[in-house]
Amino acid sequence: MPLLRRDDRSILGREETLRSWLVKGRDPIIQEIDGLDIGWGGVQRWATARMADVGDGLHLDFACGVGSFLAQLGWRFPEAHLVGLNIDFSGPHEPVRELLSRAGVKCLLVRADARRMPFPDRRFDSVSCFLGLQDIEIGFGEEGLRAALSEAARILRQGGTLTVVDEFPFDKMDRLLERLPFRTVGRAEQSLDAKWSRPVAERAVELYADGWVDQMRISESHERARVRVEVLRRMRSEMERQLAVQGYYVPFGPARMVEARKIR
Ligand SMILES: C[S@@+](CC[C@H](N)C(=O)[O-])C[C@H]1O[C@@H](n2cnc3c(N)ncnc32)[C@H](O)[C@@H]1O
């Protein structure tokens, strides 16, 4: 019997219900900013529609954060056996269990560092990472990023597919994967369906700058403040550029998806 792969229409309604729950009672600006976490302006639906079929295989989503891509995977591939890995499930990631339960998606959550995944070799049929590579790089540099991708290669079975979605240019992904046992089988790019006004954009870049310094795990308060000022300056300058050129702010992207098959 063919395995079920749900279509976009049935997923859209699920996204809306989950988003309403996530932002309920918040002020309207925060509703818009945090609401983006569910679906990421259509990019999650776009990615799961294009990626290799997960079917009923064992699938790992690493750097799963609050689990919105896991929810999306569970909606698209209802027969998949899902595992989510994140370095912690506290702070902004704390609602992950409730989010997945409200999404109706079953998933095993593992708290671990993607640079040292607690799984045996070739355990998974497929692996994904949605907007996690950039956070690993912010916290642990390119060396950390390479370690996480090398772990993804180790725990994936031969013939299995790694799907990553991030902002990185394609040539950077090529460089990161070049010494690993992968063959790139797909690349695609997609813009976010999000057009934020100035008040939303201004609040968002403040929050994103906080998130950035949190990911850097800087404990010394002066250094934290210094880095935050620098990150915020960069984000504001991009925000002003977009507001001047197009009259709205798109907080991320374009998103680039790379699919790589494990060849040995
Ligand atoms: C922006 S979130 C990714 C979004 C998420 N995939 C989703 O669907 O909602 C990035 C996540 O990477 C996690 N992270 C950063 N470094 C990590 C590491 N070394 N190992 C595992 N997770 C890590 C962060 O805790 C954060 O939750």
| Strand/helix succession | HHHEHEHEEHEHEHHE
Task: Detail the poorly predicted runs.
Answer: none
Strand order of the largest sheet: 3-2-1-4-5-7-6
Mean pLDDT score: 96
What class would the helix/strand composition place it in?
Answer: alpha/beta
For the sheet with most strands, the description reads: 7 strands, mixed
Number of strands: 7
The number of helical elements comes to 9
When the domains are counted, the total is 2
Describe what you observe in this structure.
- The chain is α/β, with parallel strands linked by helices.
- It has 2 domains: about 10-195 and about 250-260, Vaccinia Virus protein VP39 (Rossmann fold, 3-Layer(aba) Sandwich); about 200-245.
- The protein is about 45% helix and about 20% strand.
- Strands 3-2-1-4-5-7-6 form a 7-stranded mixed β-sheet, with helices on both faces.
- Strand 2 (about 80-85), helix 5 (about 95-105) and strand 3 form a beta-alpha-beta unit.
- Helix 2 packs across helix 8, helix 3 (about 45-50) packs across helix 4 (about 70-75) and helix 8 (about 200-215) packs antiparallel against helix 9.
- The mean pLDDT is about 95.
- The structure holds S-adenosylmethionine.
- S-adenosylmethionine binds near residues 37 and 88.
